[in-house]
Amino acid sequence: MMAPMLNWVEVRADALTHNLGAFRARLGERVRLGAVVKSNAYGHGMLEVARIAAQAGADWLCVNNLDEASALRTAGFREPILVMGYVPLDGLEESVARDVRVVTYNLGTLDGLERAGARFAKPVPVHLKVETGTHRQGIAERDLATFLERIEVSPHLTLEGLTTHFANIEDSTDHSFAEAQIAAFGRAQDTVASVLGSRAPLRHAACSAAALLFNRTHLDLARIGISLYGMWPSRETLVSCRERGRELLELRPALSWKTRIAQVKEVSEGSYVGYGCTYRTTRDSRIAVLPVGYFEGYDRRLSSVAHVLVHGRRAPVRGRVCMNMCMVDVTDVPAAAVEDVVVLLGR
Ligand SMILES: Cc1ncc(COP(=O)(O)O)c(C=O)c1O
């Protein structure tokens, strides 16, 4: 028998499907939609989200590393998979064996992919990532031609994708930096055209914020992460969309995190709550103890800051979040009782 759960997350498939559909409509039929399911689908469960996203029409699945890509293949996913993070040289054979696309920005990786292609006697589609200002992964503008020429002379390599990533598209309502990155990416496309002629690769740059804000970032494939899960990338993105008169997508948060009350106690005015005596009651209070602390992922910085929902009403966290417990004030929620469900995140 499974032990009863003290805290759990619920993920709404209908919310994920709705959000994906909203992006599908925003992108139009021609632009491919890559569901970013890396890092356990932002905590929502990678295999479950990938299944829902694929059913709802995601064309690509985007992950961070080869382990995630392999887990998707093992689970039977046939969609193209893009690994956006680093694949070490000794992982390249597996990536080719499993038909996983590797975002590439080192010549050594290109050579390793070519060797793997030769070993398995199959073509290897490559995605080159170009540096446009984020100064994370990426090929410098001056080096791009060298990479393209290396692909040209490698019998098993083909350029399938050309990609970049925005540095400052959701943190500001001033999009001049993003505009400069769009321009730099345009120059990279020109370089590709000058080497490859009409054999144009898939161009992809957009994350959620870019897809929401600028149609011209949609290009051939958009990589949608945070907003697939129902969140606006930032307040600035929402404000910018409003300012630009963009139709606001209705996004539905998919995840909620819940626990249940372990104890309710009467605490008289002037009493301390929790370690360090950091909170002192200002009235006679009812305090509920929740079996969730920072070990379970309830951040210690939420001490005396966050609220939870009990019977749909906000109850403030009082005192320090402990390792496996925290305390909330339910004085204003008279119905609160032991074993009642509490919403830590969500509605
Ligand atoms: C390269 C790349 N593309 C796309 C995304 C998705 O971004 P977002 O979650 O803002 O949609 C990420 C997320 O970190 C990323 O690293």
Main attributes of the structure:
Lyase, Ornithine Decarboxylase, Chain A, domain 1; 2 domains; eight-stranded antiparallel sheet; alpha/beta; single chain; 347 residues; binds pyridoxal-5'-phosphate; 10 helices
Briefly say what this structure is.
The chain has 347 residues and is an alpha/beta fold. 31% of the residues lie in helices and 24% in strands.
Description:
The structure is a single chain. This protein is of the alpha/beta class and 347 residues long. It folds into two domains: 9-243, Alanine racemase (TIM Barrel), CATH 3.20.20; 261-345, Lyase, Ornithine Decarboxylase, Chain A, domain 1. The chain is built from ten helices and 18 strands. Bound molecules: pyridoxal-5'-phosphate. The site of pyridoxal-5'-phosphate (PLP) has 12 residues, from helix 9 and strand 9.
Topology at a glance:
Blueprint: E1 7-11, H1 13-27, E2 32-36, H2 38-43, H3 46-55, E3 60-63, H4 66-74, E4 81-83, H5 92-97, E5 100-104, H6 107-120, E6 124-129, H7 144-153, E7 157-163, H8 176-196, E8 202-204, H9 208-213, E9 221-224, H10 235-243, E10 255-260, E11 263-267, E12 272-273, E13 279-280, E14 285-290, E15 307-310, E16 313-318, E17 326-329, E18 341-345
The chain binds pyridoxal-5'-phosphate.
Pyridoxal-5'-phosphate binds at residues 36, 84, 165, 207-209, 223-227, 233.
Binned, the helix content reads: 25-40%
- In CATH terms, the superfamily of the largest domain is Alanine racemase
Distance between the termini: 30 Å
Mean pLDDT: 97
CATH architecture of the largest domain: Alpha-Beta Barrel
Number of helices: 10
CATH structural class of the largest domain = Alpha Beta
